[in-house]
Amino acid sequence: RKEGFDHFMLKEIFEQPRVVKDTLTPRLPLDVNDIVLDDINMSKEVLEKINKIYIVACGTASYTGLVGKYLIERVARIPVVAEVASEFRYREPILDENTLMIVVSQSGETADTLAALRLAKKAGAYVIGIVNAVGSTISRDADDVLYTLAGPEIAVASTKAYSAQLCAMYLLSIKIAMELGKISKDEFLELREELYELPDKVGTVLEQADTIKELADKYINSKNVFYIGRGLDYAVSMEGALKLKEIAYLHAEPYAAGELKHGPIALIEDNSLLVGLTGHEELFEKTVSNIKEVKARGAKVLAIALEGNDEIGKIADDVIYVPRTHWMFTSLLENIPQQIFAYYISVGLGNDVDKPRNLAKSVTVE
Ligand code: M6R
């Protein structure tokens, strides 16, 4: 049931404060100064021997993997490769008992992701699944499961499941780093406080839905849309571009901001739109200089920025602000406007939002 919403996608977008809360808070009990992951049984002994992590998934779930790569490498200092399953499974990856594989899947039935998991298990690697569908094949075949508690997702375009995957990845990254002594108890308490504030902050972004609809109407005739960012923002840009492609059928490409001048900038014309993700503020000046280059060549710029960043307002045509949080968690908040933007463009173009052409919810064929 759509419960008064025009589409399942919109309903699922608006469920996100609850989904974020449900995925995070049961694992962060206030009477224990630790993250409690009931279904993760990997021992400290096994974890300490892990010298390489692969995060393998398809589509949107693979972008959760990219976020995970940035986070785990930075806080736990273990090398991570994030890769799409359809490539990983065919390239004879190097796997052994000191490898951890994290597979991410909403349905838990994606054929390529399942094949990658089986390859890893055969080689003796330890496999953790971040899965939404309880009892699915991936959840049964993985050594351990971290369930995303998003509830059933009906719209083909993933929204709330992706947010829940990010939350699961936040928990797992912090847990691994704590177990390895890379995050102290005090740092953890600070992170926990921020995580508890995330559901309300997601709600604050949702309050801007009408304004984002106006921006969608303004930019609905864009011919080419480029999403750019650096670091975690680059991972977020991938999800933004995919959402626009799959439900709005607009040509959209994500680029690492620094790569623009190595080729793609040649595509920029007067009717191009650039969505600039600037939440990774350590690299703000660098990304802004890329945004300026594109603007000078005629593109319109829609920026997604952190509240209180006045600088970006002087450069971009429009800015959507999201609340500030710990740098590890900005990806979740920055992505919500991208979902709403793609949704309203799709509606405005008269597309079948919940069942976009040529796509299936669960890809169980290779
Ligand atoms: O069920 P999964 O998470 O394994 O599915 C992976 C992709 O097929 C899925 O995320 C797809 O990219 C969605 N249509 C994205 O909105």
In short:
The chain has helices at residues 8-14, 16-24, 44-49, 59-76, 85-88, 111-122, 137-141, 160-179, 185-206, 209-218, 232-248, 284-295, 330-348, and strands at 52-57, 80-84, 99-105, 126-131, 144-147, 224-229, 251-256, 273-277, 300-306, 318-322. It is of the alpha/beta class.
SSE layout and pairings?
Elements: H1 8-14, H2 16-24, H3 44-49, E1 52-57, H4 59-76, E2 80-84, H5 85-88, E3 99-105, H6 111-122, E4 126-131, H7 137-141, E5 144-147, H8 160-179, H9 185-206, H10 209-218, E6 224-229, H11 232-248, E7 251-256, E8 273-277, H12 284-295, E9 300-306, E10 318-322, H13 330-348
Parallel strand pairs: 1-2, 1-3, 3-4, 4-5, 6-7, 6-8, 8-9, 9-10
Protein name: Glutamine--fructose-6-phosphate transaminase (Isomerizing)
